[in-house]
């Protein structure tokens, strides 16, 4: 009899326990979710973060990457699944007024704390980057050895921030990443079947040239770039422009496209905002300046851009009350009271001009008549003189190869949309090396002329022809 009396009670208790269990699961999923709703069933999130520059004047690139790490970490990604490439010479630089910290916003907090030092200094190489993406530990030289050891159900997020040029992403140890090599790596990763889908964000000048006519839809990769194949990207939060960084900073804190997606991610719940919605937000903010802005582009497979951002950058719904009005997939106005990550209407600076701005600020920082001011002025004068020399060199090479009338056109010609900048990438690399042999290493500014080599190849110019002309123009016969 007692059994029959207790059975309904037990059933009721069991029912209550089941409901509580479900509520607890839903509450934890809503409050502490680390990826998309089916995260556990669909695999692991991986991320590769790359700052391809070095030097305090390039503060903004490492700052972007560190901010991205904080977003991923807050979103629930584990350090073991985040591979970070950064030279790591900014936080402890003598020029850093806030030693040991890095900020990405004039009012922002430190984004450097906790960032893994996987590949720094001399280990920040193109070889290590491509090996890490492929999960090839045996090909790694130096660094932590961490790689993207992904499986067929995993999603991968790759973010690069630095200088770029037609067909090339800059790396700090004179081993730049050519678009074709990057594309071949992505193709190999696809053929290995070791990811479900991939999202790539590229902050660089002429970034569209990395994917234009090269990235295939069937690889299930979606990429956005800060610029089209024929324009600069822009720095932001620069000294002397509104809003400026704190007065003690002489360099730009971030890049316009990067800050746009980073601050959007700070404000919005990645479980409700889609990849496509963020693209539209970033596209608008990056181009709002008209001539002082760039055209954000998208490439590859756009079908899965309707997936939530949480599928790639994780998600934490532990947002402050000031963010609640923005958790509508990019539709918020960014005016929430007390929200320190609200997007700020800023005046951007073209990437190459940001480098000169930094040098000018260095001059002004030092007392008149001081040795340091004299040295800073010499550095600025040398940079300006170098730019004039490089521009003149390429004009002279173009005129010598193609004639007075056609020369300038040939080194500047942009191919039609849908075509990669060059057909023969081996020729492209060979001509670049030939130029370096006779005219010296290409600086970050000099690389803006990389399209000239592509156009030479497309027009049938051979190595011997360029070698002869370059030796004449540069006066360095070898």
Automatic annotation (TrEMBL):
<keyword id="KW-0788">Thiol protease</keyword>
<dbReference type="InterPro" id="IPR043577">
    <property type="entry name" value="AE"/>
</dbReference>
<keyword id="KW-0732">Signal</keyword>
<feature type="active site" description="Nucleophile">
    <location>
        <position position="205"/>
    </location>
</feature>
<dbReference type="GO" id="GO:0006624">
    <property type="term" value="P:vacuolar protein processing"/>
</dbReference>
<feature type="domain" description="Legumain prodomain">
    <location>
        <begin position="378"/>
        <end position="474"/>
    </location>
</feature>
<protein>
    <submittedName>
        <fullName>Vacuolar-processing enzyme gamma-isozyme</fullName>
    </submittedName>
</protein>
<keyword id="KW-0378">Hydrolase</keyword>
<feature type="signal peptide">
    <location>
        <begin position="1"/>
        <end position="21"/>
    </location>
</feature>
<comment type="similarity">
    <text>Belongs to the peptidase C13 family.</text>
</comment>
<dbReference type="GO" id="GO:0004197">
    <property type="term" value="F:cysteine-type endopeptidase activity"/>
</dbReference>
<dbReference type="GO" id="GO:0005773">
    <property type="term" value="C:vacuole"/>
</dbReference>
<dbReference type="Pfam" id="PF20985">
    <property type="entry name" value="Legum_prodom"/>
</dbReference>
<dbReference type="InterPro" id="IPR046427">
    <property type="entry name" value="Legumain_prodom_sf"/>
</dbReference>
<keyword id="KW-0645">Protease</keyword>
<dbReference type="Pfam" id="PF01650">
    <property type="entry name" value="Peptidase_C13"/>
</dbReference>
<dbReference type="InterPro" id="IPR001096">
    <property type="entry name" value="Peptidase_C13"/>
</dbReference>
<feature type="compositionally biased region" description="Basic residues">
    <location>
        <begin position="323"/>
        <end position="340"/>
    </location>
</feature>
<feature type="active site">
    <location>
        <position position="163"/>
    </location>
</feature>
<dbReference type="GO" id="GO:0051603">
    <property type="term" value="P:proteolysis involved in protein catabolic process"/>
</dbReference>
<feature type="region of interest" description="Disordered">
    <location>
        <begin position="317"/>
        <end position="351"/>
    </location>
</feature>
<dbReference type="InterPro" id="IPR048501">
    <property type="entry name" value="Legum_prodom"/>
</dbReference>
């Amino acid at each position: 009899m007692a059994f029959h009396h207790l059975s309904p009670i037990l059933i009721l208790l069991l029912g209550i326990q089941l409901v509580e269990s479900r509520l607890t699961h839903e509450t934890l999923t809503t409050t502490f979710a680390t990826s998309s709703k089916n995260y556990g069933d669909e695999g692991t999130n991986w991320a590769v973060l790359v700052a391809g520059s070095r030097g305090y004047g390039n503060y903004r690139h490492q700052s972007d990457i560190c901010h991205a790490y904080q977003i991923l970490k807050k979103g629930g990604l584990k350090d073991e699944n985040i591979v970070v490439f950064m030279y790591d010479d900014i936080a402890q630089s003598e020029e850093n007024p806030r030693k040991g910290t890095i900020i990405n916003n004039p009012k922002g907090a430190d984004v450097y704390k906790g960032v893994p030092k996987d590949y720094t200094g001399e280990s920040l190489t193109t070889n290590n980057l491509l090996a890490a993406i492929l999960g090839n530990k045996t090909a790694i030289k130096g660094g932590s050895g961490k790689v993207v050891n992904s499986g067929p159900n995993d999603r991968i997020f790759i973010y690069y921030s630095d200088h770029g040029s037609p067909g090339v992403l800059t790396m700090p140890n004179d081993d730049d990443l050519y678009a074709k090599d990057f594309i071949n790596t992505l193709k190999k990763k696809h053929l290995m079947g070791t990811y479900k889908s991939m999202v790539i964000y590229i902050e660089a000048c002429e970034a569209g040239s990395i994917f234009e006519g090269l990235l295939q839809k069937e690889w299930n990769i979606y990429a956005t770039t800060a610029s089209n194949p024929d324009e600069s990207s822009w720095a932001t939060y620069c000294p002397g422009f509104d809003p400026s960084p704190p007065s003690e900073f002489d360099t730009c804190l971030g890049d316009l496209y990067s800050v746009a997606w980073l601050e959007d991610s700070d404000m919005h719940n990645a479980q409700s905002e889609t990849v496509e919605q963020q693209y539209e937000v970033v596209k608008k903010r990056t181009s709002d300046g008209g001539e002082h802005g760039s055209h954000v582009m998208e490439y590859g497979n756009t079908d899965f851009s309707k997936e939530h951002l949480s599928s790639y950058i994780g998600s934490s719904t532990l947002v402050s009350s000031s963010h609640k009005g923005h958790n509508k997939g990019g539709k918020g106005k960014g005016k929430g009271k007390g929200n320190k990550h609200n997007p700020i209407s800023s005046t951007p600076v073209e990437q190459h001009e940001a480098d000169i701005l930094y040098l000018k600020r260095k001059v002004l920082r030092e007392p008149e008549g001081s040795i340091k001011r004299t040295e800073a002025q010499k550095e600025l004068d040398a940079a300006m003189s170098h730019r004039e020399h490089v521009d003149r060199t390429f004009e002279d090479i173009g005129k010598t190869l193609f004639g007075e009338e056609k020369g300038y056109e040939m080194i500047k010609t942009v191919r039609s949309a849908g075509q990669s900048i060059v057909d023969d990438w081996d020729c492209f690399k060979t001509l670049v090396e030939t130029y370096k042999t006779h005219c010296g290493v290409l600086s970050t500014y000099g690389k803006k002329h990389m399209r000239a080599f592509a156009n030479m190849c497309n027009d049938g110019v051979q190595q011997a022809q360029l070698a002869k002309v370059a030796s004449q123009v540069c006066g360095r016969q070898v």
